[in-house]
Structure formats: C-alpha cells, structure tokens
Design goal:
It is a single chain. The strands form 3 sheets. The protein has a 22-stranded antiparallel β-barrel. With 546 residues, the chain is mostly beta strands. It is built from 2 helices and 26 strands. The longest helix is centred in the first third of the chain and has 16 residues. The chain is globular, with a radius of gyration of 46 Å.
Length: 546
C-alpha cells in the first residue's frame, strides 16, 4: 500500500501537466510599469586566493656523527686441487726379444729448480740376427746414443746447451744377386755422429721489446768408408709487436762441408725471412718473403713468397685457411742416411738441395667437441731437385746392394686428413691419411716413395695401472728402379699392413713390466728393394724409476 501511494504521487504531476486548460476574462488590461528604479552600483572586487609564503627562520647546528671503518679481508684465489706431480731423478728400462734383441735405456735428470736444469740420457738397441734367406751373412744392427743437456734460467733469458753422440752400425745384407753370400766384415757400415750446440732465448713481457733467439750448432759425421761431413748452423730470430701487429725476422747461415777419400765439396745456404702478421677476433693473416742464397759449385738465388689467411667461423669449431710458401731444403749425408742407412758412401759428394718452389694449401681445421679435433687440407707444390733412392748398379757398386740417389723435377698434389679424439688422460685415438700424386719430368715413378699412407693409433690408460697401445700402418705399393740384364726397369713392391701392440703393467709407482709386439701379422715386406724386414718380433722387459 505504501509503495502504491508513492507511485501515484510520482505520476500525478505528469498527469496534471498533460491536461489543457483555458480561462476567459472579459475587460481591459492596463499594464503597470515602474518609472523610477534606483539601481545600486558597486564595483567588482576580485579576491586573491594566493596567500603570501610564510617566512621561517632556520638555525643550523653542526653535529659530528661518529663512524667506524671495518676492514674486511678478501680470500686469495686458489688453483685447482690438482696436486703437484712428484718427480723422480732416474729412469731405467731394459728388455730382450727374439732375433737376439737387447734393449737398454737410462736417464738421470735434475728435479724442479728456479735456476737451472740438466740431464743425461743413454740408449742401446741391437739385434744379433736379421731376416733369413738373404744374401748377407749377417743382418743385425747396433745403435747407441748418449745425450747431455742443460739449461740456465736467467732474469729475462734462458740459456740452453746440449752434447750428443750417436753410433749406428748396419749391415748391407740385401741385394739383387740372391745366390751370393756376403761375409759379415765385407758388408758392415757404421756411422759416428757428434753434435754440440747452444741457444739463448729471451722472455720479455713488454710488447715493445724485441724478443730474440740465437742458436749455434755444429756436427760431424763419419762412416766406415771415409765419408765425412761437417756442418755449422747459425740462426738468429727476432720478433716485435708494432701496435697490434707482429714482425718476425729470421736469419740463418747453414755451412756444409763434405769430404771423401779423394775430393771435398762445400755448400752454404744463407737465409733471410721477414714475416708480418696480424690477428683479429675472427681473422689471422701473415705476409712475407723468404730469401735464400746458395753458394756451392754455382751461386743461386731463391725467392719464396710467404702468405697465410685463416677465418674463425664458429668459435674454433670451423676454421678455413689458405697458405702459400716455399723453402730451400738441405739434403745432407746425415739426413739422407737417417732415411735410408744403406746409402752408398760415394753419394756423399753428389748431394743437391731440394727447392720447394711454391707450396699452395687450403683446408679446414677445428674441433667438433672438447675432445675431438680435426684437420683436412689439399696442397699442390713444385719440387726442383727432388731426391729418390734407386738400387746401385755394378758400375756403381760391385755388390749391388746399396742405394744411389737420382734427382728430378716433380709436381705433387697431396691430400692430408687427421682426426684425434682424447678423453681426459685415459684414452687417445688418432687417425691420419696422406695421399700423393706425382707428375715426374724425367723419371717414370717416384722411386721407393709410397703414394698412400694411413695410420691409426690408440692408447688406453686403466687407472694408471695398465697401459695399452695399438698402432696399425698401411703403405701402398711402391716402385723400385733396378737393372735387369742391360736395361733399367720398374719393379713393384707390394703394399704392407703393419700392426704393432704394446702393453705395460705398473706393479708399483716405481716398477713396471712391458711387452711390445711388432709386425703381429708376420708380413715379409720390403721397404727398400732387396732388403726384407724382420717378421714378427717381440720385446719384453722391466722399467724402474728411482
């Protein structure tokens, strides 16, 4: 009821306003007007609402607040918890094997020192027998070497010094006339080698200083047949940073004197090689030149441009590079007999140096992971007076069981690949491949030179208690240049797979036993034509450290 009453009161005015009314009033209308109206005039006054700012008077009184300084200490940085490895002064190793093999090795070195270091090393390896069914009556060998070395740590330099003596005895047991039997004394050859040298190297940390290295070395080599070689080598290298770039300058003098029973020959190589290099975050580049002056029977000048460029694509995971270079390589009686100990002594006076006129290489290197690294490259180079070993003829050697050298110009294309995997210090695996393609100018083939070499090596360390090693090599077939009747013909040497195994058991930290197995497949192959190598051979012994 109450709500209804309110509703009617609200609607009532609307209803009344909606009705129409009219009123009729007869008569006359007289308007009324006020003639005099007094208006009051007042001026408009504006009141300001902005109040003036109050004035205050401040009295500042100084008061010192007592503060204290507490000095805290910063703990020094520490290296990893890896302990310093204990060093031992002496090392001895001895063993025996088939083919009447005797092996011995001994070394003594100084312990850690801030002022100097020194050491002495001795090694002996001999075999009383060799391959059977060969023309030589005796096919053994004998090797000894003694090394003395030391270095002195100066304030900003290190002084190195060394003396070495090697004596190698071999027997020319091979040959082409298999019906002949050569006596032991008639086929013996030995080499006595002595060298001594010193080197001074700087260690300046200031980039504006000139770091340098000065080296001096002399050696003398003599064989049983009165072939002698004296060599003196002086090398001076310096480097300095110019702002962020580096300048390296190398200078060397290589003097070689060869003598025989009736003649002597001298040859000197003077080398000057400046190289300017720069390195940025992604790029590394160098440019230079190699200047070689050769003084011998004739005076020759050689120039070899030097340049390289590499680009780090992805944080050392992929680094393409390209290089260009060249050099003059010394062919000495010492270096050649290290490659082939059956070289005829007469070749001592017929040596030529090999000029690598240019070497162009392009490749990729990097690391796939923290444990896997690789390097792949292709190269092309030109060789002048490249040396190759060939069997001697009856005119050169009455036994025809030695080797001579032929020289030729060759263009060589090579492909090299290498990959390595290392898992901490427990396991290492490395694989390499080298393929060669020769284009000879005069000779039919690159004699006694494999054109394919492959190798796979692995090492495994089981808690520093058992160490295992495995090596497998492959060399493809080679060519030998031999005399058949009155004609020189090419003879093929078959390829070879050589498997070698090694095992070492460490009984204590001081005493261990080892076993080496070589040519496990017992292949009878010839690295040099007419010279078969030993078949399966083993060497077992003990190692002692104290």
């Amino acid at each position: 009821m109450k709500n209804t009453l309110v509703f009617m009161l609200v609607l009532f005015p609307l209803f009344v306003s909606a009705q129409q009314y009219s009123i009729d009033a007869p008569g006359q209308v007289s308007p009324l007007t006020k003639e005099d109206v007094n208006l009051r005039g007042e001026e408009a006054v504006t009141k300001d609402t902005v109040l003036p700012p109050p004035k205050f008077t401040y009295t500042l009184q100084t008061k010192r607040y007592a503060t204290t300084i507490v000095i805290d200490t910063i703990r020094p940085a520490k290296l990893g918890s890896e302990p310093v490895q204990k060093l031992y002064r002496t090392y001895a190793r001895a063993g025996v094997g088939n083919y009447s093999t005797i092996y011995g090795e001994f070394s003594a070195v100084s312990l850690r020192s801030k002022s100097s270091a020194w050491g002495i090393h001795f090694r002996h390896l001999s075999a009383g027998k060799g391959p059977s069914s060969v023309p030589g009556e005796f096919a053994g060998y004998n090797q000894q070497d003694v090394n003395l070395f030391g270095k002195k740590f100066l304030k900003k330099h290190t002084l190195y010094g060394a003396l070495n003596y090697d004596r190698d005895a071999v027997y020319n047991y091979g040959g082409l006339a298999e019906t002949a039997l050569y006596e032991k004394g008639a086929i013996r050859q030995h080499f006595n080698y002595f060298d001594g040298g010193a080197r001074l190297k700087s260690h300046f940390t200031d980039s504006t200083a000139i770091n340098h290295e000065i080296g001096l070395r002399f050696y003398r080599l003599a064989d049983r047949y009165d072939a002698r070689e004296n060599n003196l080598l002086v090398e001076i290298n310096g480097s300095r940073y110019i702002r962020t770039e580096k300048l390296d300058v190398g200078f060397g003098v290589d003097y070689n004197h060869n003598a025989g029973a009736t003649d002597t020959v001298t040859n000197t190589i003077i080398r000057l090689q400046p190289v300017f290099s720069a390195q940025a975050k992604k790029f590394a580049a160098s440019i230079g030149i190699g200047f070689y002056l050769e003084e011998g029977k004739n005076s020759l000048v050689h120039f070899y441009p030097q340049a390289s460029l590499s680009f780090n694509v992805a944080d050392h995971m992929l680094v393409p590079y390209i290089t260009m270079g060249g050099f003059l390589g010394r062919n000495s009686y010492r270096s050649l007999t290290q490659q082939n100990p059956f070289l005829a002594s007469s070749e001592n006076l017929l040596l030529r140096n090999t000029s690598h006129q240019y070497i162009l290489s392009a490749g990729l290197r990097g690391s796939l992971t923290n444990e896997i690294a690789y390097d792949v490259r292709i190269s092309h180079y030109n060789l002048l007076d490249a040396h190759f070993f060939v069997n001697t003829t009856s005119a050169q050697d009455i036994f025809q069981n030695k080797f001579a050298i032929v020289y030729d110009k060759a263009q060589v294309t090579t492909l090299h690949g290498q990959v390595g995997w290392q898992h901490f210090e427990k396991m290492r695996v490395f694989a390499t491949l080298d393929w060669y393609k020769y284009q000879m100018e005069k000779e039919a083939h690159p004699w006694h030179t494999p054109t394919l070499r492959m190798a796979l090596t692995g090492e495994y360390n089981l808690q520093d208690k058992i160490l295992a090693r495995a090596q497998i090599y492959y060399l493809n077939g080679q060519y030998a240049k031999v005399l058949e009747g009155s004609n020189l013909v090419a003879t093929t040497l078959k390829g070879v797979v050589d498997l070698n195994l090694g095992l070492e058991y460490r009984y204590t930290k001081f005493l261990s036993a080892f076993l080496n197995l070589n040519n496990v497949a017992a292949q009878r192959y010839q690295r040099w034509y007419g010279y078969p190598t030993q078949r399966f051979n083993l060497l077992a012994g003990l190692t002692y450290t104290f």
